[in-house]
Amino acid sequence: MASPSEDEMHIDPQRAKQLIDNISQVTRLIKAANKSSREVRLIAVSKLKPPADVLALHTASNPHLHFGENYLQELQHKASVLPSTIRWHFIGALQTNKCRPLAWIPNLWCVESVDTIKKADQLEKGRRELHEREEGNELQAGETLRVFVQVNTSGEMLKSGSEPGEETLELCRHIREKTPYLKLAGLMTIGAIARSQEGGENEDFVRLREVRDEVQEMIGGDRLELSMGMSADYETAVQMGSDEVRVGTGIFGDRPTREDAAVKGDVEKRKK
To answer: Does position 141 have pLDDT exceeding 60, yes or no?
Structure first.
């Protein structure tokens, strides 16, 4: 690990208690919404929050493993100063030229937002390079990198994601057949906020289930997971079959602006 500063790694006991209480409450609500026996993965979205917040949850009596970040350089920094036992998820919009360095992070557990074949190929290249560099090391470098294909279920022009149908099918097939260092874990969507506020079944979640079922039927193999639901709608997502939810403000509270947080690097651009 890199040498962190004392300030960014100092755990305030009162803050730690609040974080643990928050994540415990979110976990209880997930269990209440889950009417099946499946395990639902909770990603604590720690973007723009200090490493100490992550450390407080990861070193608690019931350690949390899965954390999500949106920005490459912030993730690189946190991964370098925090324990390698953390399972990092990249959940932000991907830039093609950032995929290789992203895949070099040894304990990157999953990339949630793959939406083009070109990006999948660059992640594959980076993970292969990491494996070749670290072969024989006990780091997780040789592990297959899990990826979710992001699907634009809402049809919003400014939202990332592959189109439901043939485009998504071909991307999933490409990952399954052409990228041995990647593992197709499932499909992800970020639904329209308005639909989450309407109550009842979210149309975007319904559509993602349909797309997943179509892809699963066509390519077979291991069961594909659903990643849908964030702080405002994760309970509904779990009720509708999500295997994974991404919760940030519900655990860490309101986050500062990017400028106020003084995060290293430029804001990631939308997909190229």
So the answer is: no
- Report the mean per-residue pLDDT for the chain: 90
To the question of pTM greater than 0.70 for the whole model, the response is yes
**Please, are residues 159 and 150 in contact by the beta-carbon 8 Å criterion?**
no
The 10s digit of each residue's pLDDT in 49-73 is: 999 999 999 999 999 999 999 999 9
Q: What is the Cα–Cα distance from 187 to 92, expressed in whole angstroms?
A: 15
CA distances from 216 to 41, 49, 101, 172 (A): 21, 37, 30, 9
The residue type found at 141 is A
pLDDT above 50 (res 272): no
CA atoms within 13 A on the CB side of 37: 0
- pLDDT over 70 (residue 144): yes
What number of other Cβ atoms are within 10 A of residue 217's Cβ? 9
Q: How many CB atoms lie within 10 A of CB 33?
A: 18
Look up residue 222 and give its two tokens: 């291991």
Which residues, 6 or more positions from 4, have their beta carbon under 8 angstroms from its beta carbon?
51, 81
Check: CB of residue 92 under 8 Å from CB of residue 71. Answer: yes
Cα–Cα distance for residue pair 144/165, rounded to 1 Å: 26
- In the chain, the amino acid numbered 208 is L
Q: Name the residue with tokens 């670290």.
A: 134
Rounded Cα gap, residues 32 and 236, in angstroms? 11
pLDDT computed for residue 158 by the predictor: 75
pLDDT for 257:
66
What does the angle CA 222 – CA 143 – CA 246 come to, to the nearest 5 degrees?
Answer: 65
